[in-house]
Amino acid sequence: xxxxxxxxxxxxxxxxSTPGFLSSSTSVLMSKATNLxxxxxxxxxxxxxxxxxxxxxLTAIDAxxxxxxxxxxxxxxxxxxxxxxxxxxxxxxxxxxxxRDPGDRRKYAIALTGEGQSxxxxxxxxxxxxxxxxxxxxxxxxxxxxxxxxxxxxxxERDGDRGDRRN
Length: 167
Fold this sequence. Notes:
The structure is a single chain. By secondary structure, the chain is mainly alpha-helical. Helix content is 55%, strand content 9%. The chain has six helices and two strands. The protein has helices at residues 26-45, 52-64, 69-76, 80-92, 114-135, 141-156; strands at residues 96-101, 104-112. Strands 1-2 form a two-stranded antiparallel ribbon. The longest helix is centred in the last third of the chain and has 22 residues, at 114-135. The radius of gyration is 20 Å and the shape is globular. It starts with 25 loop residues before the first helix and ends in an 11-residue tail after the last helix.
């Protein structure tokens, strides 16, 4: 089964900057989609003086509670050195605070401040949803749901029983 299929029945012209079959290559399309969303999302975060990694860290802390920089870096695929600068920046903005981890005094737990939580929930979250809506504009609601299910499957159902979904 090929993961690269020709561009049949699509209304948009092929990307002429990419040679031949690569313009419809699944890997190239996924990369371009990722880059497009990253650009849209970074633009949505700019009014707040933040980057997408800042949003990821704030969201992770909000969802999972205080965590060490190492945990945050490991669980979200962010380089440890980059994570230090992300947390430093968020701390300077008053959005997170470092405190000694009660379970391991050698580590610091990173927690949201009230200001960080308020910004995330009332401004950043809606901005992210707006960016996602902008990205998904070409898809109708049913296609968006199907797209999300397919992404979930690709990311989280690697080894599990897929039942009859391949039909």
